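User: Okay, second chain of the day. Same drill as before: sequence in, structure tokens out.
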Amino acid sequence: MQKAKGFKAMRIFFTGVGGQGTLLATRLVGEAALEAGIQVTMSEIHGMAQRGGVVESSVVMGDALSPTIADREADVLMAFEPLEAVRALPKCFPGSTVISSTTPIIPFTVAIGQSTYPTQETLDRLIKDKVSKLLWVDADKLAREAGSDRAANTVLVGALAGSGKLPITQENWNEALRRIFPPRLLEINQRAFELGRGLGSGAFAAA
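Assistant: Same drill. Structure tokens below.
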């Protein structure tokens, strides 16, 4: 296990909708951090994955005093659904980074015509001026390129890895992928991770 040096703390808040693999992505980030020798606490805030409801979880790394993420404490917000990124904004502060999927999961109220879903432009406006960095990821498209639209969560974790915000090596990530995914799913998720990592690396290098 490689010991991370000079790393103090990082708070990552995850939000999505049941069925998107939010909790699996949380485990993947936590496993990679452990592999890098970083102290990690993972928690599920609340989840209704069985009902298609909102799922929230967190990874707190390093020397953070609290294992939970209060409002205005999230260094990174990982959103697997764009409207949930807006709803979770109270967790962020002006220095936060938001990495979000662009694929909406249409709520029941929208489906039956009782409300409307915001446009991508509206969502972008609501978020970008409140945080330091916003990266929109067409995770579903990249997941299909990797071989399975169910790997969109891994694409988003790859984008986080590419951001350079975590002292986690490629070897650490590879080992975490091997631990999380069974052999029949490993290759697809490795490809999905690499596609996301490439996108994140390019986006954050240009920032």
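The longest helix spans residues 183-205.

User: Thanks, on to the next one.
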